[in-house]
Sequence to fold (379 residues):
Amino acid sequence: MSEPSQHHGQGNGDQHHGDQHHIVSPGIYAAILLALLVATATTCGMSYIDLGEWHIAAGITLFWNPVVALAIACTKMTLVVLFFMHIKYSTKLTKLTVIAGFFIFMGLISMTLSDYVSRAWGRW
Amino acid sequence: MSDSTAIAQGATADAAHPQHGEHPPYQRHHFETVDQQFDATNFAMWLFLLTEVMFFGGLFTAYLIMRNWYYRAFVEGSHQLSILWGTANTTVLIISSFTMAMAVWSAQMRRKRSLLVFLGLTFVLGIAFLGIKGIEWHEKWVKHHVPGIHDYSEQAFLNPASDPEVYKEYHDKPLSPAMAQKTEEYFFLYFAMTGMHALHMVIGIGLLVYIFIRARTGAYTNGHFTFVENFGLYWHFVDIIWIFLYPLLYLISRY
Fold:
């Protein structure tokens, strides 16, 4: 425990194993915090403005407000994952696993939703 | 956690590899290097978080379907939530993610005092989040908007003018009795999602206390910060869930 270890000394994590223990500087964390707070204020502000809707086809309408709100939320998530959760600096295996996980998640959601929208509800 | 076992193993391991001291005491013997050990545990943490994504994903999918079916009920249910508290809580949680990231940085830089300060700040912000959440839940209780309970009240949706505080801002139209019933669906998802999120916060705060107590004795600032790093991943994950809950639950048709 008190044994001195030569690994990962003050701020020079880089020199051991490439990007493994890249130490993200407080400046970057502060910049991300600022971006997240600005994005939160933007989401909140945008919700008070009617961004209109898009009639794609008969019975199918896309409302822009939730689309914008979710786009901002996805941006915030990406910032948190890349910087706070260090994925930008992680191994290729971890990066690929995270991307695959979200891909499967999106697949599950879209397959479930396509089932729900395409059923002949109440007609059997 | 098991520094003592590492030391006990170290005593017998001297025979196994004569030049002891070529690896730090916290490196388990089944790993080639400290980096490999870090990557393995970090990878495992991500696998766990992805199962958590699937877990919350079920709730989000249910939300999407119900919101499409009973949109008016979701709009008027959402108008019952306080934007002020919701935005305040989002801000509190985002700042707590920042302080947690700084705690990880402190552990990496072996700065014990700063680690304790940032862990403490994260703890306080976590408690503040739960406190605000408690205020909001209490308000739902007082207004009889807790679903599944016999005295659930549809009054504010059948006759919006009866709830002047909300009515003066949004001028909601009365819902049909069938649609007003569906507001219970909205509040069910509201409580299920924020409740499950809060449960994760409670577990996180418990782990924070554990980490804080151990950090006081110098753990995590000896170069072995894996546990703090992986706990940080959990904390940020909980933050991400809230980043989606905030617009989905609070910001439906506020104009």
About this structure: Residues 1-19 of chain A have pLDDT under 50 and may be disordered. Chain A touches chain B through 59 residues (CB under 8 Å). Residues 92-118 of chain A form the longest helix (27 residues).
